[in-house]
Give the backbone structure.
Amino acid sequence: MAKEKKLVEAITSMDEDFAQWYTDVVKKAELIDYTSVKGCMAIKPAGYAIWENIQHELDRRFKETGVQNVYMPMFIPESLLQKEKDHVEGFAPEVAWVTHGGLEPLQERMCVRPTSETLFCDFYARDIQSYRDLPKVYNQWCSVVRWEKTTRPFLRSREFLWQEGHTAHATAEEAEERTIQMLNVYADFCEEVLAIPVIKGRKTDKEKFAGAEATYTIESLMHDGKALQSGTSHNFGDGFAKAFDIQFTDRDNKLKYVHQTSWGMTTRMIGAIIMVHGDNSGLVLPPRIAPVQVDIIPIQQKKPGILEKAAEIEAALKEAGLRVKTDDSDRSPGWKFSEQEMRGIPVRVEMGPKDMEAGQAVVVRRDTREKITVAIENLAAEIPQILDTMQKDMLERARTHRDAHTYVAHNMEEIKDIADNKPGFIKAMWCGDQACEDRLKDEVGITSRCMPFKQEQLSDVCVCCGKPAKKMVYWGKAY
Amino acid sequence: MAKEKKLVEAITSMDEDFAQWYTDVVKKAELIDYTSVKGCMAIKPAGYAIWENIQHELDRRFKETGVQNVYMPMFIPESLLQKEKDHVEGFAPEVAWVTHGGLEPLQERMCVRPTSETLFCDFYARDIQSYRDLPKVYNQWCSVVRWEKTTRPFLRSREFLWQEGHTAHATAEEAEERTIQMLNVYADFCEEVLAIPVIKGRKTDKEKFAGAEATYTIESLMHDGKALQSGTSHNFGDGFAKAFDIQFTDRDNKLKYVHQTSWGMTTRMIGAIIMVHGDNSGLVLPPRIAPVQVDIIPIQQKKPGILEKAAEIEAALKEAGLRVKTDDSDRSPGWKFSEQEMRGIPVRVEMGPKDMEAGQAVVVRRDTREKITVAIENLAAEIPQILDTMQKDMLERARTHRDAHTYVAHNMEEIKDIADNKPGFIKAMWCGDQACEDRLKDEVGITSRCMPFKQEQLSDVCVCCGKPAKKMVYWGKAY
């Protein structure tokens, strides 16, 4: 069969062409399909199920911190977008404009939200009067549009799915606390659920969000040594509040401006999962985020009793709280193994007539391909442990890879050499001057990823200009 | 306090001005706020939490029937929208057009999806080759845009949230079966969860969806006697498949067109909940959909032990699986009662020092205001039963109201008299001719709601023209 052949064909090796490998995996694991809408993708069931799990995990964590979900319009009238000067400069060049409603031109054109600060500010200006109305800790799940010139599935597309939190507080301290709190929620989520280790830090002024006082970020390293900004949390101070006149009467009866934050995570995390954990056989999903955790593959399934036993195992594993499927299609076991590997299902359970006779099955880990023989009656107890171990090992492996690809540079010669020859993070001191950031971008092709919270004193001078250093910075090439 | 006053102010009486009553409830129960984006609303936490519960309940029911969630782009290139003739005629006059991306005009303008048949067809044309690829049973949760001239919160807004299911099948029979299956899912959901009784039926050709072969609908009756189309399920036959060339190789090795369906339910159901169950004190939420089911209101809460006992009760009720909050704010019990009633929380638990001494509390039902004295240690066992009874009673009451407002007309004189004087459904026979539908709309101001599955033979002749009747139709004024 043509389709069967296509799937078991080797995908491009990641060492040969990482970008092509990525595209192959995204397509062959059936995460997305291209569409007739340039720069926009169709997210298929296997991809969307990952996003549903991300949503579920994040939403639960948000609500534990008091977040409430809301929904704002998808359109922003041009005059509203223009209220905050830095913000409009940052976003206006990359928005999609609606100019006609039905058969008539609009009196004022509107953009499709690239992000919703302006809409939330407009709402808060109406909704907040007193200190009793604070804090507001709102979030929405939606899609946003940014008119990117070059696009790649999950990593950069003209429309993407995300959540955007928008909060308003009575004091600057409380806003800063919330900004850091949400960054920590993202970092814990990435490490605990996605098995992706992250560096927490602050963006330089050059790299911060348009309109923010401070942008905090978590940065992760992909298998090819490129960095991925994985979640950001912004403290706006009272800049937006002043532009939108969001004031409240405080306990002391004085009118004050609120302090605001926003924070977001997107479907690009699906890209991160692929690029951190995937291998030359396809996707490898961390057990906690995998829509299907166990794929039961019966061998010689036409032999009497095999499918019945497989059904028993499936029932027992589901009873144990696992997400399980049985592949009883008429294809060969080899084909089924390839498909399970391509789709990144964390473990498969192989069981044929001889296994059944011996009262056992073989559990194969997707990440290491380790084969573990387990008594059938113990599967429901042991597989959860195997998945836990796999989850921990995946995080550890990603951390080891990242640390092995994190380099230190003391001067321009060293940083050029590393950037040219050793893909990864580069730690280097910086004077705080944007001119040096610009020069590193132009001459070395790297950008500042963040000023990490965990600072180290690598030397006393800026890697670029040699003047006194103020901060250690993580640099890198980024998606 | 100004805010306190505002809330306890009486809302407009529903008998005096139903439309104003609706607007008051929507605003004072804090379900939505108006925005600077004309015709679009901001859904606030209390409103969005209802939508989250609707999503949760529907999504679970969908998945039990094999539905998989996906996500398609929000934009439709004009040429794609135009591929199916009836469909474009139905929707083109009411879409929003994107003409510029970033600073440049688009080569081809795109509309923001008013519905996604064309996008799913484009996708299926690529994705379906063989009978092995069928059926496709996909759904997405998203927002859509229709450029309405007059808007009302939840009932008709330029952007609204919904789910849209889109399926493709090998045979006409399977498509018809799925169409009816999903209509039944909607009907059961409305009755079991929202306590809203519905009439199931088929739309006339005049009222069917643009491009559909058959549209099925569930119709409900609001408190003011107007009808609300509450969910629709469409069978497209192979019309879209031919327009988009969606063919598959069947088992007999022949190329065939697929048969398709689509089905949707929207945030207007929140409007239905308000208009079916609400009263002059505000919202009344059916227990199964209420984000908060129990509001514990301590009386004389500064007396020793009261708040501690309230916390104990809250813990016990949560343990029993209920959604509970305690209002320990510094406002008066009367204010708290009004707020609980305005927000439609199904029951409140009142407990003061004397109750505590007697080891009891008073449970007050929101719908009937019945007061039930319950021993504190029995609250966790009895409140779930009280909520169950309330849920059943609400459905029964809505059904009784609807039946009492369903009339039979045999001729034009009768139907005019009913339409003018008795708001409600009108059952009447119809010849099947669209001219009669047009005349009833123009002269009587009513539209055909559906041809119910449960047909009755009220007479042999059409209510309008007197020619032989083919169908009994439910007629009414609709939102």
